[in-house]
Amino acid sequence: MSKQTLQLHSTLLSIHSLEVDADIPVALLKLPLFFISKTHDELSIVCPSHFAIECLDTEPDWQALEVVGPLGFSLTGIMANISGVLAKANISIFSISTYDTDYILVKKHTAQQAITALKNDGYNLVVDQ
User: Fold this and answer.
1) What structural domains does the chain harbor?
2) At residue 14, does pLDDT exceed 90?
3) β-bridge partners, 37
4) Which of 60, 66, 69, 104 is deepest in the core (most CB within 10 A)?
5) CA distance 87 to 114
6) How far apart are CA 44 and CA 91, in angstroms?
7) Residue 61: pLDDT above 80?
8) 3-state SS string over the chain?
9) Contact yes or no for 35/41 (Cβ under 8 A)
10) Cα angle for residues 108, 109, 113 (degrees, 5° grid)
């Protein structure tokens, strides 16, 4: 199987931790890119850094590497392979999966290093402007 194509998005993202019963800002739902996760223990929101959210903690300055999809549910090892390449390059990640694809978030200051490591491993990279 050939390596996937990844697209580095230019939008800076922040990862927010909220009280588990916090209200989700309605304006968030109008943004072109956001992710919401909730369990019985936590509520997390990933969204563009320019969008202010009242939260417990924020981890700013992430960029998203999107695995260009859609990806079939029968495909295996995609995240394991990509995260393995980045782990060998000592790059921390935050991963998110959607119905159609996967996103690997890397800190902005490691994005170029991530691109180089992935290209060296045979991945195709497209960079947003």
Assistant:
1) 5-127 (3.30.2130.10)
2) yes
3) 44
4) 104
5) 10
6) 22
7) yes
8) CCCCEEEECCCCEEEEEECCCCCCCHHHHHCCCCEEEECCCCEEEEEECCCCCCCCEEEEEEEEEEECCCCCCCCCCHHHHHHHHHHHCCCCEEEEECCCCEEEEEEHHHHHHHHHHHHHCCCEEEECC
9) no
10) 100
